[in-house]
Design brief:
about 25% strand, alpha+beta, globular, 60s Ribosomal Protein L30, Chain: A, single chain
Length: about 150
């Protein structure tokens, strides 16, 4: 019995080791150029974990004046990361939105809906207080590659 348990523990440890070795990090040109201390996304097996994305104007490094323009910039950046990984927005299973002013919920949803065809991923919309660069929104998510 002990030999069987040790054998199974060994197989489990090998499987865990394979999963860890299987990680692939995705870094955008901006993340690389600025040597930021994070990856834009990380593959772990068939699951893609996406870091927080903001909707900053590339010319100013600040959020645009309009909340809907900011949401669109953020979702475009997020979509680009998803597509760089070889997935689509339909592969997202969970998203978390941080918002500095929850009264923007409706404005955000108008833009958000336009990025999905059919069903939506599970999602949390959280009041966050102040965000980096005075952004109104930050989004992160999890996608799963369909097999």
């Amino acid at each position: 019995m002990i030999h069987t348990e040790l054998f199974m523990m060994g197989i489990s440890a090998m499987a865990i080791g394979l999963a860890v070795a299987d990680h692939k990090r995705i870094r955008s040109a901006r993340t690389e150029k600025e040597n930021l201390p994070f990856s834009d996304a990380v593959w772990a097996g068939n699951t893609l974990y996406l870091s927080g994305h903001l909707g900053l104007d590339s010319s100013t490094g600040r959020p645009p004046a309009s909340a809907t323009d900011e949401a669109r910039l953020m979702l475009e950046a997020f979509k680009k990361t998803v597509e760089t990984a070889g997935l689509t927005m339909q592969d997202l299973v969970f998203m978390q939105v941080f918002c500095s002013d929850v009264s923007l919920f409706g404005e955000f949803n108008v833009v958000y809906r336009s990025y999905f065809e059919g069903g939506y991923p599970a999602r949390a919309f959280l009041g966050s207080g102040k965000l980096l660069f005075d952004a109104r929104f930050e989004i992160q998510g999890i996608a799963v590659k369909r097999i």
